[in-house]
């Protein structure tokens, strides 16, 4: 079902296929992120269709109800995926710019907590927390200086590594990323999020928003045995905690 996200983004699934994928999408954070990343694919396809030699696909301004050729679909999805993979390896500072250039939209990320007023959508917290609890391969660390506590749960997938971060004792406002660092030295951004002023997982507070840990769900192209460690980094380059894989 994960492999259907590209075809869904292009609008080439029939009604039954689209309905089945939408049911899957409601419970799959990974596919939701991929769909956001591929949001610009349909206008890109329309633009390519208007070039000489591509008369088999609709021209700009026409509907994409006529299915494009499979070779064009596979090539376009593959090109976007490959570009995103190359940019990810250059570091998380370049990812936002790369995403803007490739898909013409903002870099999106999903950050969820336990709910409550002023918090992220409480209905989105379930899948991330449930995935964290279901994964058995967990690695934990507490930074001696920042006191930030992190647990990274991960699981091998055919596309790389599915990862969920549980974060505690962090106070905002901050913007952060979870970075997977390979044994070869390459760095990949797993996911990014914002920490509100009250923070997450803080034992010294009386509010539910601040007491609850943060759960964020993401993925890396690395396989689990290729990952040396994870780092929780602020957008201004400060490392909050390092977790050995």
TrEMBL record:
Question: Does the keyword Membrane belong to this entry?
Answer: yes
Q: According to its UniProt record, what is one Pfam family this protein matches? A: zf-HC2
Q: Which keywords, in A-to-Z order, does the entry hold?
A: Membrane, Transcription, Transcription regulation, Transmembrane, Transmembrane helix
> Keyword Transmembrane on this protein?
yes
Q: Which domain of life is it from?
A: Bacteria
Domain Putative zinc-finger stretches: 5-32
Q: Where is the signal peptide?
A: none
Q: Transmembrane ranges? A: 91-112
What is the protein's name according to its record?
Answer: RNA polymerase subunit sigma
